[in-house]
Every structure is written in structure tokens, then in C-alpha cells.
């Protein structure tokens, strides 16, 4: 069976377990995941039977791309009755039970939702986003191969950045060099993020005090950015000698993202920052030792917290003070913020096919951020490290 | 009075007119517009009195950036009672009337909305997105100056692209050159778009048949893209001699975008495509003649339709066949898809301060897209053309 139809079948299986009659998929990334096309429209997946993709535009292109039946959406007015005709048994259930329809409440705007509610009066709506995100959490071999390719390209960009690093170079200039390398190597020009109001450019190259500035971005190191209209990532501050340079970069090739971080310096880091960096590698090694099927996600986080506490660096871990984030890593795939999250409350046991970016980092306000981030695929008996860039603090060209 | 407090006052004025007691602003761009910060949280603007920005993160940064009172959001549990204490007269109205609260239904996800509903039981929720988008439609002199700067930078990128154009160069290579120029000149690395599922990278450089491919993107020329996971914009097809090269590019500096299109060729265009290009300039000239306060937006579109009909190119205008889009232009500002839209049903009269990208284009399936796009600010007695790039078909280097 082909990959996408097996995804729909797995969703149907979960729908039956949870009593959902129909899933309406609307978000571009979820559409691509289930049918191979991100043309705009509504994908209806019934608990049993064939899915239909009703497309607004481009119908021509969706018909080419999707692996299931594609119909023109037409006007929303007649849409409800077309649906009840397409799925009569779902809308006229024995015993007069209410039809239960799930949608992606985590991304679907209220306006779009109300339009759907208007088209399907009388049904009961429920949030289907966790269902879909849990399915997407387990990657196929093909998906992992795509992430491997992004990992290969980001390594080229990383080595180029290390060679280009100079004292006095603004962070954003170095970021522009990285972006040019990845774009010439297949990067789509953007990285997708699911969370409301979250944006990611291509990560963040941040040096010294600028890297340590807190931001709204839901990650351990935000960065100064270019101003209040772009208040994260790289800024115009020139990179100085003997300060940590956090190179947290990613790219997106054929839809799949990679996320990696390395620490560099022009000259030498102060001893305490070097030790903090070494602790980030030690946390990584100990986390790797726990990467096997069955280990609950949250235990990776709590073990890291304990390791850092013993080393006396709790206050600096994953951000500083009130701006600390409460996780050690996150799933990646079509989006940068996938499941699982390595955080308290995430009891998912690790499973083969999960792909997780693990990012122990230490923030020193006014001085900088040090740390490392690798992405891993969980395998039957452990893990595959997808990140290929060399570890260790990269010593760039001489300071002067 | 400072610009942002005058924006809030204008919103309050509109709220009173429409009977809204409280606006909850949540989207990053709207937050930036009203208070100067895009840290995550909830901004409450009452119909009368002081606004409060409740911030999740970063509180430190929001306190720096915002021009109003900032409070830590804390847990959602106690949030409702904090709000009713902050605005007692709004939540206990004389006569026991229901409090009316508006939110941005066009972008707010259902999950976030339900969280707000839970925090404020008993109020009546309404869609506030048109109210906010209509406010943002009229730009201040400072906003127009920011767009002028983006227009200046995109012209540098355009001239660089024309110099770099070579036969056999993949579209995406030329796009990478444009992106590098704009990034080194202040582009934030992304362009914001409001519409659900809409993405924009930095526009599209598309040549020949690839440019004419329809896409989900709500614009007249989509492009082939890099594959079904990125099904729009530039692709890997090599640019050939004697075919139209549509250079539809933009950038975003200090939050404000520009959007411009030019047509180039290596060698010479076939006569009918050259004539179609000339018609796009003629449409532009006639549209310019209508750019003055008081003219209804939709009339610009219907006049263009008529001009194109008379010339016999209706079928090719703004896309081809079933994939045509039904507008001539759109507002730009902090987002690429602002009000007004130059389309039927948009009866807004042109007003000083509107900034509109006008983009007459003609699509020839299998052959390419030709056209032009300029951005204009409406002034007291006409318009200011913000786009500075030279018009006309750019003849690039010799074909061989």
C-alpha cells in the first residue's frame, strides 16, 4: 500500500477508536501529509470509506498532485448537501445519533471554522489536532530520508559559515551567507511552523549579549533581531572576538526541515562558558543513552534538569530566569514544532520513527548562549543521529 | 499624540460606533501595529479608557517595546477575574446588558479562541477582524516612508537580477541572487501574509511555461515551485531565450513590505506577448488616472476588465481560464494581503493613506506570463508612485 493511503488508514483506525465520524483537514501541511497536495480546499476523511478532496484552487494542480478523488469545491452554499450525499451513512446514523466531525482547532481560524459549521448544521464538532499531530509524530523511512537530506545541506552551510566568520561582521551578514548556501542547495525559502504567531526564518546566528536576549519565540535562545517588527533571530550587532557565537540554523528541502545548533568562537571563550558548553555536550551524551523505544519523553527532560542541577547551572539552562523554556527538545518533520515535546507532561514513550531535535543550551545574560542541538531518529533498538556536522566548539579564523 | 496611541483611539472610536465594548488583539502583526511590540500575549483595548497588554513572553522585552502598560499574563485560570477587575464598568453594564468582545476571527485559531471564551464566560463574542483591517488600511506618513525604503531596496535587487540573467539559469538560482541582495540590505528574511494557508517567500521569478502554471496562491501568477511541498514560486526549470521572465519580487524592511513585478527577456518576445505586455502598461496608465480620493476600489477593477475586453485578452487576464483571480490589486503594509482589494464588492472609496499594489498581468499557458506591478500611495489629490524600478520589458544580456 502506498504511504499516503496508509496514513489515511491509520487516521481512520484512530477515528474509530475515538468515535469520530469524519475529519475535515484544511491546513496546507496536513493536506500535503494526507494526499500529497497543498492546494487550498477541504479534505474529508470518513472513519470508513473513501476520502474526497474538495479543492478551491488550483483544481488542475490538485488533480495532478493528489492520490485520491479531487472535486471542485464550488460555492459553500451547496457544499453541505453535497457532503451529506457523498457520505449518507455518516450523516444519517442509525438511532439518530449525532455525527461527530473533527477539525484542526490548533490552526483553523474561527472564520473558516464558522463557515464549516454553517455548511454542516447539526453535527458535533471536536478538536482533531492532537489526533493528526500524533499520527505525524511517527515518520516513515521516506520522511526520515528527506530529513537526512536537509541535514546534509545544513552541514554545508555550517562549514561555509565557519570559514566566513570574521570579527566585526554583523550576525545578519553571516546569516545571509548561510541562507544563500541552503537556497542554492534546495531550501524552499521558508521553514514551516505550526504554533500561532510563531515565525522562524532560518534559525538564528547570535553572538554575545545579542544571542542572550529573550524573545517571544518558544525556544531557549531568541536573539536580538532586526528591530521590534522582527524581534528575534540575527541582528546587526557586529560579532566580536572571544564571545560565544550560537549558530542555530535549519533548512527545508522537499517539505522536511532540519534544526541544528553549534557554538563557535573567534579566539577563545572564557573558561566558565567553555565549561557550560561542555556540559551541553555531556547532557547530549546522557540523553543519547536514553534514546530507545519505551522511554517516556518527559524523562529525557527531567534527567537533563537533574544533570544540570548537579553541575550548578540550572539558572542558565534553556534560557535565563523568567524567560526559560520548559523543554529539552521537540519533534521535527514537515514543521519545526512537531510532537513529541521533551517536557513534563509528555508521557509518550519513545517509538521508532520519531524524529527529535535535542537542544541543551545555556544562556548568560549580557554574555551569550552556548550549546548544541542534534536531530535524531528513534530506531528499533536506539537511535540514528541525523545531524552530520562536527561537534565541539568551532574555532574560527584568528581574531585579527 | 504619538502614532500608536492615535491608532488605538481610532479603534476605540470605531468600537463605540459599532457597540463593541472590548477588543482582544492577539495576532503578532496587529499587536505590533497597536502597541509596537509583537511579544506573545493578549492586548485588551476597551471602548473607553486605557489598554493593557498581558504578555506571556517575553515580558521583559514587551516592557521595553510597548508604549502602554504591560502585565505578566500568568495562568489563564485567574485571567478572567483579573480582567473583570481591570475593566469593572465593561463587565457590569447598567441594565445587565451583555458585554460585547471582539477578536480577530480571520487569524485566531479555534483553540486559542476557546481558551478566551473559557476565561470570559457570559460575554458575547463578535468578529473584529474587518474593524482592525480597515484601520490598518490607512497608512501614516511613517508607514509610507517604510514602504518607500522597501521599494528602494527591491529596485537594487531587480537591477542585480537583470545583470545576472543568463540562458540556462534555473529560476530559483536567480531568485537566490535577489534574496541575497535584499537580505544584505535589511530584508527581515520573511514576508508576512495574513490569509490562512497562504505563504509568500519573496515573490516569484518565473519563466516561460513554468510561470503560467496555476497554484493555490491567491495571485495571478503562481509558478511551478520546487515540488508538491512547495507548489508555487520559482522552480528548477532553466530560463530560456525569447520567453517572458516574470520578476515578481518583494521584501520586508522594518516590518513593511513592497511588491513589484517587471517582465524581462533574453533575446526577444513573440509579438503577441509583447503586445500583451504593452497592454499591461496601458492598463496601469489608465488605472493611475483613476487613482484619486473618492473613486470606489471596485471601479478600478471593472475599468481594467473593460479595457482588456476591448483589447481581446480577457481570457488571459490575471491568470487563465478557471484559475483566474478576480482582482487587479491589493493593499500592502505590514502584510502583503491588506485592504483594500481592487475587486468587485469592495466599494471603499480611495482615501489618502491607502497603499495599493496594482498588478495587471496576462497568462499564456505553456508560454508564460507578462505584466507589471507597481505600488502606489493615495494622496490628497492623486497618488505617489512608490515603486522606483524602470518600466518596460527589460532586455537582458545577449542570449548566447
TrEMBL record, chains A, B:
Q: Which InterPro entries match?
A: Creatin/AminoP/Spt16_N, Creatinase/aminopeptidase-like, Creatinase_N, Pept_M24, Pept_M24_MAP, Peptidase_M24B
Q: From the Swiss-Prot or TrEMBL record, what is one GO molecular function term?
A: aminopeptidase activity
Q: Which SUPFAM superfamilies match?
A: Creatinase/aminopeptidase, Creatinase/prolidase N-terminal domain
Instruction: List UniProt keywords, sorted A-Z.
Output: Aminopeptidase, Hydrolase, Protease
Limits of the Peptidase M24 domain: 146-380
Q: Name one Pfam family in it.
A: Peptidase_M24
> Where is the Creatinase N-terminal domain positioned along the sequence?
7-138
Do the record's keywords include Hydrolase?
yes
Domain of life per record: Bacteria
- Does this UniProt record's set of keywords contain Cytoplasm? no
Secretion signal span: none
Return the protein name.
Aminopeptidase P family protein
Organism, by scientific name, is: Paenibacillus ginsengarvi
Amino acid at each position: 500500500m502506498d504511504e499516503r493511503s496508509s496514513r489515511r488508514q491509520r487516521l481512520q483506525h484512530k477515528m474509530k477508536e475515538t468515535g469520530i465520524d469524519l475529519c475535515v483537514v484544511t491546513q496546507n501541511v496536513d493536506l500535503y501529509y494526507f494526499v500529497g497536495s497543498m492546494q487550498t480546499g477541504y479534505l474529508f476523511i470518513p472513519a470508513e470509506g473513501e476520502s474526497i478532496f474538495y479543492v478551491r484552487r488550483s483544481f488542475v494542480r490538485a488533480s495532478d498532485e493528489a492520490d485520491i478523488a479531487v472535486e471542485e469545491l464550488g460555492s459553500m452554499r451547496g457544499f453541505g448537501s453535497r457532503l451529506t450525499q457523498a457520505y449518507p451513512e455518516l450523516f444519517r446514523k442509525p438511532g439518530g445519533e449525532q455525527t461527530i466531525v473533527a477539525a484542526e482547532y490548533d490552526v483553523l481560524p474561527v472564520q473558516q471554522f464558522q463557515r464549516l459549521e454553517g455548511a454542516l448544521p447539526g453535527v458535533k464538532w471536536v478538536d482533531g489536532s492532537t489526533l493528526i499531530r500524533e499520527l505525524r509524530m511517527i515518520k516513515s523511512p521516506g520522511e526520515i530520508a528527506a530529513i537526512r537530506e536537509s541535514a546534509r545541506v545544513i552541514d554545508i552551510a555550517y562549514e561555509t559559515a565557519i570559514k566566513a566568520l570574521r570579527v566585526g561582521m554583523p550576525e545578519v551578514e553571516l546569516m545571509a551567507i548561510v541562507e544563500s548556501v541552503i537556497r542554492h542547495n534546495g531550501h524552499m525559502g521558508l521553514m514551516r511552523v505550526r504554533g500561532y504567531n510563531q515565525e522562524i526564518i532560518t534559525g538564528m546566528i547570535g553572538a554575545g549579549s545579542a544571542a542572550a536576549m529573550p524573545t517571544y519565540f518558544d525556544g531557549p535562545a531568541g536573539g536580538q533581531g532586526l528591530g521590534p517588527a522582527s524581534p528575534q533571530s540575527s541582528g546587526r550587532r557586529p560579532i566580536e572576538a572571544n564571545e560565544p557565537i550560537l549558530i542555530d540554523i535549519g533548512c527545508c528541502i522537499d517539505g522536511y526541515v532540519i534544526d541544528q545548533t553549534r557554538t563557535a568562537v573567534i579566539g577563545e571563550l572564557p573558561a566558565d562558558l567553555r565549561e557550560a558548553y561542555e556540559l551541553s555536550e555531556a547532557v547530549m551524551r546522557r540523553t543519547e543513552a536514553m534514546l530507545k523505544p519505551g522511554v517516556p519523553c518527559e524523562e529525557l527532560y527531567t534527567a537533563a534538569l537533574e544533570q544540570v542541577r548537579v553541575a550548578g547551572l540550572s539558572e542558565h539552562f534553556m534560557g535565563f530566569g523568567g524567560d526559560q523554556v520548559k523543554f529539552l527538545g521537540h519533534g521535527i518533520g514537515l514543521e519545526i514544532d512537531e510532537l513529541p515535546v521533551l517536557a513534563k507532561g509528555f508521557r509518550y514513550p519513545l517509538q521508532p520513527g520519531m524524529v527529535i531535535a535535542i537542544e541543551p543550551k545555556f544562556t548568560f545574560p549580557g554574555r551569550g548562549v552556548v550549546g548544541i542541538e542534534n536531530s535524531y531518529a528513534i530506531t528499533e533498538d536506539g537511535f540514528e543521529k541525523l545531524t552530520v556536522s562536527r561537534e565541539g566548539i568551532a574555532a574560527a579564523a584568528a581574531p585579527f
